[in-house]
Amino acid sequence: MKFKGRDIISIKDLAREEIDYILETTRAMEPVAKSGSDILRGKMLATLFFEPSTRTRLSFESAMHKLGGSAIGFAEAEVASVKKGENLADTVRVVEKYADIIALRHPLEGAARLAAEFAEVPIINAGSGAEEHPTQALLDLYTIWNELGKIDGLNIALVGDLRYGRTVHSLAYALSLCDVKLHLVSPESLRMRREVLDTIKDRIKVTEKRTIEEILPRLDVLYITRIQKERFPDAAEYAKVRGSYQVDLNLLEKAKEDMIILHPLPRIDEIAAEVDNTSHARYFQQVWNGIVTRMTLLALILGAIK
Amino acid sequence: MKFKGRDIISIKDLAREEIDYILETTRAMEPVAKSGSDILRGKMLATLFFEPSTRTRLSFESAMHKLGGSAIGFAEAEVASVKKGENLADTVRVVEKYADIIALRHPLEGAARLAAEFAEVPIINAGSGAEEHPTQALLDLYTIWNELGKIDGLNIALVGDLRYGRTVHSLAYALSLCDVKLHLVSPESLRMRREVLDTIKDRIKVTEKRTIEEILPRLDVLYITRIQKERFPDAAEYAKVRGSYQVDLNLLEKAKEDMIILHPLPRIDEIAAEVDNTSHARYFQQVWNGIVTRMTLLALILGAIK
Amino acid sequence: MKFKGRDIISIKDLAREEIDYILETTRAMEPVAKSGSDILRGKMLATLFFEPSTRTRLSFESAMHKLGGSAIGFAEAEVASVKKGENLADTVRVVEKYADIIALRHPLEGAARLAAEFAEVPIINAGSGAEEHPTQALLDLYTIWNELGKIDGLNIALVGDLRYGRTVHSLAYALSLCDVKLHLVSPESLRMRREVLDTIKDRIKVTEKRTIEEILPRLDVLYITRIQKERFPDAAEYAKVRGSYQVDLNLLEKAKEDMIILHPLPRIDEIAAEVDNTSHARYFQQVWNGIVTRMTLLALILGAIK
């Protein structure tokens, strides 16, 4: 298994064995995440965020610092050199002189792939367009695997905005490499994109539902997402679907005792605050797992571990 | 005296003995501030500034770096996850995964207290609303104590905007724990808030004045603040009081030789440039003291010193 | 040769021997830039960017980190304390408490000089107004010297916006200390500023041209700059001159085989993408050289090397 020098652009670039290897390596990274380490001392991460995302940026920076490395970057909506008219290829070829690895967030699909073609240093896609967010998918998988002891055989529901949410696209692809039953719950207007659906249906059993209730009693994992206002072309359409799905104590009465609830955060009102203290809630644990997963990726790609 | 793991939300949470202990520990920290240290190596500070404040943020970051730790954070007026609708409790529960301690600046009163209730890591209030700024009060106290050798027995004037300035609220509370004579000098419209005044009047002698001149010859400490335009509900009101109080060489002729002038900065025209080179000026010294005080708090709260 | 504690405000402050010394020291710094070092451990750089410039800021931060130091700073268009009305002298006297050295970018000419007069720590001018950008000039010189083995005796063209581009002003001054033939190529409206031209004409042979073609076959160095839209008082004027000069493969047929092309970046359409893979292109190498040059300056000024 070779990760050194590799780009992480799409979850589709990773084979099942590679994903499993990342999960196992992440578990071994847990104590390091608590104690700190110096294995990336002298290494530099550049976080290039052309779209704001405080938490993903801080997660990468925290991961880098925990391994003894440094981080520089920008998180401005309008970057100076881009305002001056620079193209992404040039920006990447400049920034790679400053850093050993680049984490890139970009509003356009395909941006990370393009960057990787021009860059000599490895590129990690930290979210591009509505398409891909591979490190989020990996931390989601790690959370499921680490909490429930396995992925294969589980009943997993993805709930909410399955059309514009890049998180669920990357996660659905990853889960289609596993032996799971996938339940897609969304309003009609936010159904999972055709191209994603076609690919995963070839591999695993997928059902589409309109309500959580229909499927809840069977679920091992309830993965719910924010209806992302900023992804909607139309405000009226947003108003209609917002709040369609809300998880509260009442709903959870019909859930299995060991069902876990995941959410990529931020949440608005998809999960009631009363759920936070139940044994189902794992969405803040996901945040921690995100750091550990990213530490693992940084260490693997920079060749500090194998 | 136990500081490890503690939140610093309000100056009112600290007893006089605790404040004295912080001052003495800060003095012992002075050489460390010059030489640097590694006692917080591997520790991470998150600076969450929901309201811009370059100097307070840089002061915390500098303090953390001088102790060998790292800092991440944001300082954007509009934070991505908040724009997406996230509440403060969630933001704090996410960010605490990235960091060992959080310094929070927020435009709303009570925000730091709320954050501390949800956070498992310690929260330092780096300014909330017009109410509290406890680390500024501590560095102010340290400056007075370090420069004049004592606090008890002094005549201290707080001048300027005593209504909207959070700095003077925290400092007035802190001074009310000491045996000082406090003189509050402000225009009528910017008098010290009732609730602050009531509390401190129970403990120490307080006079209210309209001009510096009335009280100047007796003063050991002249603490002057900016009339904060952004705190005024009404621009006309601001125009009226701006420039009411200005310290220049002419005024200082009536001051004691060893009276010191403090200012939380930034200043607009409250202190003439000609005063900068006099032996009275201590406002840039305060900036340095701010780093040393914050180093002390970080080291105490994170348990690196006792 | 004394660099410790010195400000770098203008390229005019440096003698030829000092520039040569910096170039030689930069070459010795190259392996350190690759391996990393700890010679600035415990030292802090503050990057104060009152004007956005992602690449220059990241270059300074990367240089500081590569030497084991830390960096803090701001890069906001509107800085909090400045919005509150603070003047530059106060900002600098505050920030110098946080840092051992300051890199300052400011939209106004003379800002760096003013800052240096008030600061006790060394100031590096990271670009002020349309006037000066001394570290860019030094990295340009280093690139020429390192790539061609010498500076004296070369034919060098500066092409594009010679009126508003601060880079070419600093570089032209620096080159006038060397025995070069300088060719200035620009549209009439963007000719080199009178005051720069007068100074350099006293020292070296200077010709002014309207097209690259007239001079191309003789050139050892073609230094082309972006027509900076934001420096134009008039949009119509910008539209007229934009694209006047474009380097492509067709043009390069008439160039010497070992002629090098430099550009301070970002570029818009001054250099066609097809040129990137030719042996002439050195503009991405310049980015790397910028880090190494800034490492050298930081180490010299902070007294870590001599």
Explained architecture:
Three copies of one chain form a homotrimer. Chain A has helices spanning 16-35, 54-66, 80-83, 88-98, 111-118, 134-148, 166-175, 194-201, 235-241, 249-252, 283-301, and strands at 44-49, 70-74, 101-106, 123-128, 155-159, 181-185, 205-209, 221-224, 260-262. The longest helix of chain A has 20 residues, at 16-35. Chain A has two domains: 11-132 and 288-301, 3-Layer(aba) Sandwich (Rossmann fold); 134-286, Aspartate/ornithine carbamoyltransferase (Rossmann fold, 3-Layer(aba) Sandwich), CATH 3.40.50.1370. Chain A has 306 residues and is of the alpha/beta class. Chains in contact: A-B, A-C, B-C. The A-B interface holds A 35-36, 52-55, 58-59, 61-62, 65-66, 71, 75, 226, 228-230, 265-268, 273, 284, 287-288, 290-291 and B 41-42, 44, 46, 70, 72-74, 76, 79-81, 83-86, 89-91, 93-95, 97-99.
